[in-house]
Design brief:
This protein has six helices and seven strands, in the order E-E-E-H-E-H-E-H-E-E-H-H-H. By secondary structure, it is α/β, with parallel strands linked by helices.
Length: 191
């Protein structure tokens, strides 16, 4: 789905979401979870890609380096030429693993999410309705989930960031302290 193409296409209901994340070399000192975390950096993006179009709005705050494809970007990043690469997360992780780019890691949480939809020629309401019905059916009967698990294995790419882990531990710790205090107060009141 791209808002800029709404004048030419009608879009179906979303059937998936694409995660765009930041990749950097090991030892990168920033946690990146939003576009503003990229300010001041040399950022690789695929030319003409969704993130290229998105980051163009911030070109006075970061340096955009357009490249031809994801493999070129990951290899350039691995060689140490640039600060980071913002790209579609799942295929980047698969490429990194397959080609053993051991010095490249995902840093932070996704900087952008894009709904995946089917586009049909503007005005073709009958086709759009059939596509939407098909998506609803495979969502309801579980077939969409099975296809996503088979081809994308989404659970393997859901990483907790360090910040999220700290927050979870902090909340858990505070909850334990409150529970212990309540138990101590209850035991004192019983005496």
């Amino acid at each position: 789905y791209l808002r800029s193409r709404e004048s030419t296409f009608n879009y179906s209901i979303p059937y998936n979401t694409i995660e765009f994340a930041t990749f950097a070399r090991k030892g990168f000192k920033r946690e990146v979870s939003s576009i503003s975390d990229l300010f001041g950096l040399k950022v690789l993006v695929i030319a003409g890609d969704f993130m290229h179009d998105t980051l163009k709005h911030y070109r006075n705050k970061l340096t955009i380096i357009p490249i031809e494809n994801q493999s070129e970007g990951l290899r350039a990043l691995a060689s140490g030429q640039f600060d980071c690469f913002v790209t579609e997360s799942l295929s980047a992780l698969l490429y990194i693993n397959k080609h053993q780019l051991n010095n490249v890691v995902r840093v932070g949480s996704p900087v952008n999410l894009m709904p995946c939809c089917f586009g049909v020629k503007k005005g073709d309401e009958a086709l759009l309705e059939r596509i939407n019905q098909g998506i609803k059916i495979i969502k309801l009967n579980g077939e969409l989930y099975q296809l996503q698990e088979k081809w994308f294995n989404t659970r393997a790419t859901n990483f907790l960031t360090k910040k999220a882990i700290y927050i979870i531990l902090l909340i858990t710790g505070l909850a334990l302290i409150v529970i212990i205090d309540i138990l101590l107060i209850n035991s004192r009141l019983r005496k």
